[in-house]
Specification:
The complex is a heterodimer. Chain A is of the alpha/beta class. Chain A has a domain of 126 residues: Rossmann fold, CATH 3.40.50.700. Helices cover 28% and strands 19% of the residues of chain A. Chain A has six helices and seven strands. The termini of chain A are far apart. Chain B is of the alpha+beta class. In chain B, 43% of the residues lie in helices and 17% in strands. In chain B, helix 5 packs across helix 6. Chain B is globular, with a radius of gyration of 22 Å. The two termini of chain B are 26 Å apart. At the A-B interface, helix 1, helix 2 and helix 5 of A face strand 4, helix 1, helix 4, helix 5 and helix 6 of B. The structure holds iron/sulfur cluster. Iron/sulfur cluster binds next to helix 1 and helix 4 of chain A.
Chain lengths: 192, 474
């Protein structure tokens, strides 16, 4: 009989058992992500409790599979945002609308009352510009209407605020990482 | 056969972008483009809204530097009111603007760029981030978190909120500074100073490891543009616009910010929602200029505070000015952080700083207002026109990072030509191309205020435009 040895033969680390966390920004101002970073030293604790598998602050280029929690900032403003949110939904267990733009459309949706064409004309066809023309090479088309996330995918948790403050984000993550749904009524509300 | 490589999205930057590189048969990079993929339309949707909404609304252009937009928008509104802002209010706005510069520079340097600097451009991409740094260099990572927190706490103590405070308003600020908050801020200064001085001792010796990057990360002649004062020191809030050429001559000593449209033009390129500003007298694209911390240090005689002056002297002794390599934006950022902390302390100790007279009230007295300030990434211009009811009829913004658009594109081409070649494209090669963008620290959320946010995309194409090869990292 041969004995199996416990000595690893490869340097590949064992798969982490920590929950897999992702954050992404769609059509927003980055303010909700800044509020995430405003958790300051709590980020160190967070790093010990979860693996940040995708985020603007890490070098992962493609949205991974089997994500436990994804925080989504911003509304759906262009074709690429839509493709991304559909993929995120497929790959994510708990999808969180983070901030008023994701929750309602907020400032990002203020262009809706004007329509895409007048906006592009205003921005890229002013007589004072050199080479006035609408940019379109290698760029995602803008959607006629900016919409909140839940209009196109199922959302598991809404965290309003512009942005929700860092304590609220920390409170949410704490509950979600413990497997509970947070009660946000005492923490944030629309427009806070 | 030619190839196109896309770096999509560019990560560890502030906003959305993609880079495309086009390689020829021999595997040499022919073209490099930075595509900024978001557009939001602020110029359009503020039309018809009351002018006094502009500061709070325009702050939502960008959550990374909302204070810069608050300040420039409020200054444009001060012009509409035709009021003199009370001196204490101007000083308080300066403090908040500097706190914003500190937190934003700390974010770029520590959270986004230092993984490249401390772990190496070729290091494991899964560890090359703030969390990897917390494992390998916990003290440095904590210093970065703490320094950014310092800036954010000052903003919160002044304005009640870290992101999108509503405190800067047309005519001044809407609440005076309390004695308790002043003491709290002053109490935080020594710790912040210790962090930045520590950083200024470990960072410069690292430069020796990056000589190839220093040579090629946007290292070329260009104009430099920024606000200037009469003392020849750093200026982030007031003053005139100075333009320097790459030989160090001030080709325009003092241009009136209100006349920006006479000397700054904007061009549209087909592959980016980000417009390309240029200095009109030299035409397009020769009027390419750079703004931001490196440009500001090139434009001044000294910083204006003792410790920052000493750091500036050390920097310029080994780097004759004007400094042309965009890699040195990193060094310039650190010196500006030091200046910002010292200057905040000076302003907090100003005898009038607790004055309760912090706002001037008036109805609109002019139909046009232009406000300029130095944001973390460079000169920021807000321009509004209103009708008789005070409703906005026209708005235009020239956004700090947008000013660097031409130089960023040239910078990624230069770095890609040096580092990306051959048939096998390695991850570290592409990371260097992205690192050029990190050095410029563009805020892409800001820059495409018009239509949306900025995704970065790097593409590499064959001469016939065909896509040869796509490399996705992750
Ligand atoms: S909710 Fe507010 S802070 Fe968040 S992305 Fe939208 S505008 Fe920015």
């Amino acid at each position: 009989m041969t004995m199996t040895t416990a000595t690893p033969t490869t340097t590949t680390p064992p798969p982490s058992s920590k929950p897999r966390l992702a954050t992404i920004w769609l059509d927003g101002c980055s303010g909700c992500h800044m509020s995430f970073l405003d958790q300051d030293e709590l980020l160190i604790t967070l790093a010990a409790r979860a693996d940040l598998v995708y985020s603007p602050i890490v070098d992962t280029k493609a949205f991974p599979e089997n994500v436990d929690i994804t925080l989504v900032e911003g509304a759906i403003g262009n074709a690429e945002d839509l493709a991304k949110i559909l993929q995120i939904r497929r790959n994510t267990r708990l999808l969180v609308s983070l901030g008023d733009c994701a929750v309602t459309g907020n400032v990002s949706a203020m262009r809706n009352s004007f329509g895409v064409i007048p906006i592009l004309e205003r921005v890229y066809h002013e007589p004072a510009l050199l080479h006035p023309a609408t940019p379109q090479t290698d760029l995602p088309a803008l959607r006629e209407r900016v919409c909140p996330l839940h209009e196109v995918v199922h959302v598991d948790l809404f965290v309003p605020g512009c942005p929700p403050d860092a304590a609220t984000i920390a409170y949410c993550l704490d509950a979600l990482l413990e497997g509970r749904m947070p009660d946000l009524s005492q923490h944030t509300r629309f427009g806070k | 056969m030619t190839r196109r490589i896309e770096i999509n999205p560019v990560t560890r930057i502030e906003g959305h972008a993609m880079i495309s590189l086009h390689l020829d048969d021999a595997g040499l990079v022919q073209q490099a483009h930075l595509h900024v993929n978001q557009l939001r339309g602020f110029e359009q949707f503020c039309v018809g809204r009351p002018f006094y909404e502009m500061p709070a609304l325009m702050a939502r252009i960008c959550g990374i530097c909302p204070v810069s937009h608050l300040v420039a928008a409020s200054k444009a509104c001060d012009e509409l009111l035709a009021v003199q802002v009370p001196p204490t209010a101007a000083k308080l706005r300066r403090i908040m603007n500097l706190a914003q510069i500190i937190q934003s520079h700390a974010l770029n340097f520590f959270h986004l760029s230092s993984p490249d600097l401390l772990l190496g451009m070729d290091s494991d991409p899964t560890q090359r981030n703030l969390f990897g740094l917390l494992q390998s260099h916990p003290e440095r990572a904590r210093d970065g978190i703490r320094l950014r927190q310092f800036g954010q706490q000052i903003i919160e103590l002044l304005g009640g909120k870290r992101i999108h405070p509503g405190w800067v308003v047309p005519g001044g600020v809407n609440e005076p500074l309390s004695k308790a908050h002043r003491e709290q801020m002053l109490g935080m200064v020594p710790d912040a100073l210790a962090i930045i001085e520590r950083t200024l001792t470990w960072f410069p010796p690292l430069l020796d490891q990056f000589s190839a990057e220093i040579q090629t990360f946007g290292n070329f002649p260009s104009l430099f543009v920024g606000l200037a004062n009469h003392q020849g020191t750093l200026e982030h809030y007031d003053g005139g616009i100075r333009v320097m050429d790459s030989a160090g001559n001030n080709i325009a000593q003092w241009l009136e910010p209100n006349h920006y449209a006479d000397y700054i033009g904007e061009a549209v390129e087909p592959d980016s929602y980000l417009k390309s500003p240029y200095y009109k007298p030299l035409g397009y694209p020769d009027g390419m200029y750079r703004v931001g911390p490196l440009a500001r240090l090139n434009l001044v005689d000294r910083c204006g505070t003792p410790r920052a002056d000493a750091a500036f002297a050390t920097f310029t002794a080994s780097h004759p000015r004007p400094v042309l390599s965009s890699f040195h934006y990193h060094y310039a950022r650190l010196i500006e952080i030091l200046y910002g902390i010292e200057q905040i302390e000076l302003l907090l100790n100003d005898p009038d700083i607790l004055s309760e007279h912090v706002r001037a009230f008036a109805e609109p007295n002019r139909s046009e207002g232009i406000g300029v300030s130095e944001a973390p990434r460079g000169t920021l211009i807000h321009h509004y026109r209103i009708d008789g009811q005070g409703l906005v009829t026209y708005a235009n913004m020239i956004i700090a990072s947008g000013n660097n658009n031409l130089a960023m594109n040239r910078g990624i081409l230069q770095a890609a030509r040096h580092f990306v070649h051959g048939t096998e494209i390695k991850e570290g090669m592409l990371n260097r191309v992205e690192a050029v963008i990190r050095a410029f620290d563009p805020c892409l959320s800001c820059s495409t205020h018009a239509a949306g946010a900025m995704p970065f995309h790097i593409c590499l194409h064959a001469p016939d435009g065909s896509l040869l090869h796509e490399l996705w990292r992750g």
